[in-house]
Amino acid sequence: MQRVVILGGTGFVGRALCEQLVARHGAGGPRLVVPSRRRERGKHLFVLPSVDVIQASVQDDAALARLLQGADAVVNLIAILHGTPDEFERAHVNLPQRLAQACAKAGVQRLIHVSALGVPDDPAQAPSHYLRSKAQGEQALRTAQAAGLQLTVLRPSVIFGAHDRFLNLFARLQSVAPVVPLAAADARFQPVWVEDVAAALIRCLEDPGTIGQTYELFGPEILTLADLVRLAGRASGRARPVIPVPPVVGRLQAAVLRLLPGEPPLTADNLRSMEVPNVATGRLPGLAQLGVQAASVLSVAPRYLGPAGAGVAEQLNAWRASAGR
Ligand SMILES: NC(=O)c1ccc[n+]([C@@H]2O[C@H](COP(=O)([O-])OP(=O)(O)OC[C@H]3O[C@@H](n4cnc5c(N)ncnc54)[C@H](OP(=O)(O)O)[C@@H]3O)[C@@H](O)[C@H]2O)c1
Which residue ranges form the domains of the chain, and what is each CATH number? Predict the structure, then answer.
């Protein structure tokens, strides 16, 4: 492949994907085109030799068409975790629809789309805006697949890694709060390492045998949300008691958190998503079929959350941000 467009490539998974592709191929690999609404967001990619971070809005049809010119494949990583129903619809349904149309027009056949574990085949079964809109996005792409799009869908469980906003958030929370009142404490997850997700994406890009498939990406352990909060506390050396709270308190917490500035750590919609177990159904192929041996969150997370780890990277990022870099 000469040119791969990575939508949402400035984010957590996109970073790992670009780094792994560059490490694998050096400067001689495919040109990786990463559009961003704010190019600065992709500054961690600027040093990578074959990556072009481009200021562009994929919500604009003309800009999307320009991006796709001459592309051999597209990876779609664009998603939001919080938003209004309209925002979910735009990011998870309209964009995949428009992307499929733009691919058809530009003659780009290959699309790898990242969805999420817990997304039902039937959108009507989804308890949250997040899961419903993700399911509708998948549906739109499957319609395009019937018309010739070479589609692969990946459905990861919650993803961990040095730059995650999940375990790092729990670790940070325990550095300031004396206890952690936790809604949905029993919600189940099967966390998957970001480097394994990136390896799976690369396998999909390189192996035509993955066309037409849907893969579930998950790690070796099933853990509850409370287990994960405790793991983050232990690994960062700041373990605090975790106190499960009933759903009504969780909804109240979410309502209060919405009033704070910035991205809320938890919303009512997130709580509804957690009603669906975020674990493999066993009905679809997984990492093993992609030739990737899943790493364990129990062994990897302490390496970056611990004092010698990149809780350090997080700290550096915080310092860089406060220094305006
Ligand atoms: N992280 C997880 O635990 C997890 C779990 C399950 C599934 N997934 C899925 O994995 C994929 C990648 O996740 P991630 O964690 O890497 O996400 P991320 O870090 O939030 O990155 C997503 C990227 O999408 C772009 N974006 C967001 N909203 C957009 C919008 N409205 N219009 C255009 N661009 C927009 C942003 O790029 P710019 O701001 O630069 O434009 C951002 O860098 C997503 O499909 C997500 O649902 C993630």
Answer: 3-159+192-218+280-290 (3.40.50.720)
